[in-house]
Write a structure and sequence with these properties.
The chain is an alpha/beta fold. The chain has six helices and four strands, in the order αβαβαβαβαα. The protein has helices at 2-32, 49-62, 86-90, 105-114, 152-159, 163-170; strands at residues 41-46, 69-75, 92-100, 133-137. A four-stranded parallel beta sheet has the order 1-2-3-4. The protein is globular and about 40 Å long. The N and C termini lie far apart (49 Å).
């Protein structure tokens, strides 16, 4: 069992590091191009994708770029809720939406095998540091980690996240 845990930890560490690197690259791409000209972008992350999103935000903060990100939507995240701070939110034009479920058994039981001291934002609300933080508990509607995909339209409509895009998705 110990060998199995070590293999899982090693795989997790590599995947986690790749997500961090991807987020940093994304920040530099967004900051270094005129892809969107005078428009802000919104970022969505699920599970390990929340690492990509937030490391992009944290890198943009380091670069002093608060003109790029409008909203961030995090669902079933693996980030430690203690890693969020007020300075992070200054980069966002609008808000950070954290969607979490207390019944996310993957985060509750499997994540501690590889990262035992994390309080994942997919289970816990992010401490309200600012009016920009919106926590949405979907325990009663969504339940587990693998149910987010089939319920993404419900989540988007409950948060009014990019409501103009939601209309196109529903058509």
């Amino acid at each position: 069992i110990k060998a199995y845990k070590d293999i899982k930890k090693d795989m997790w560490g590599k995947t986690y590091q790749e997500a961090i690197t991807t987020g940093i690259y994304l920040a530099h791409i967004l900051a270094g191009t005129d892809l969107f000209k005078d428009h802000c972008v919104s970022l969505v992350g699920f599970s390990l994708g929340t690492i990509v999103v937030m490391h992009c935000v944290w890198e943009l903060q380091r670069m002093n770029r608060s003109d790029i990100i409008y909203d961030c939507l995090l669902m079933g995240g693996v980030l430690n809720v203690q890693d969020f701070n007020k300075e992070t939110l200054d980069v966002l034009t609008n808000r950070l939406i954290n969607v979490h479920s207390r019944d996310d058994f993957i985060l509750k039981f499997l994540l501690p095998v590889v990262d035992w001291d994390t309080e994942p934002n997919g289970i816990f609300p992010i401490p309200s540091l600012d009016h920009k933080v919106q926590n949405l508990d979907v325990t009663n509607e969504i339940g587990g980690h693998l149910k987010y995909k089939e319920n993404v339209n419900k989540i988007l409509s409950r948060t009014d996240f990019n409501e103009d895009i939601l209309d196109k998705v529903n058509d």
